[in-house]
Amino acid sequence: MLSIAVALPTLAVARDAITANTHAPAYTADDKLMLPADYREWVYLSSGLGMSYSEKAPNSDPVFDNTFVNPESYREFLRTGTWPDKTQIVLELRGSTSNGSINQHGHYQKGDVQGVEVHVKDTARFKGGWAFFGFDGGAVAEKIPTTASCYSCHAAHGAVDTTFVQFYPTLLPIARQHATLSAAFLKEEGIIK
C-alpha cells in the first residue's frame, strides 16, 4: 500500500511534465515575441493556396500558407474543442509556381519563406486574450496594433475563440463534437439565424 502511495505523486509529476507547455510564447525584455525556431516541427494543421479575404482574384502564382500549432495546445484542443492559454498558431507564407521539373499541372511550394505571422493566446498579457505578430524575416516581432483589421476579422469570423478553425479540416469536427463553434460562424454557415 505504501508503494502505491509513493508511486501516485510520482505519476502526477510525470503527467504534469508531459502536459506542461514547453512551447509557451517567449518575449524579449521590450515585449517583442520571439519566433519559435522549431515551429516546423509542431503539429501541421493545414495549407491554403491563394487564400484572400478580399474580392480580388489571386495572381497566377498564388501564395501558400502553412499553419502549425504548438503540440500541447493541439492536444488540449482535441480534448476540449478550444485553445488553452499560451497557444501559438504559426502561419508561414511561401510562394508557389507551376513550372518546374516534371510538373505539368497545378502548383507547388517554391522558394524561401515570404513571411510568418503568429496568433498568440496569452490572457495575462493581452486584452481579449489574443494578439498577432508579423515577422518580416527577423527572429522577433512587435505586436500588431489592435486597430489592425486582423483583430476585428478574427473576432467576427473565427470559428473557435477568434481562430479560423473552419480552415483546419481535422479540427473542425472536434469543435463540432465539443459544441465550441462561435455563434458568428454558425450564422455564416446558415446553421443558426
Automatic annotation (TrEMBL):
Domain (Cytochrome P460): residue spans on this chain: 36-164
Top-rank taxon, per record: Bacteria
Annotated protein name in UniProt: Cytochrome P460 domain-containing protein
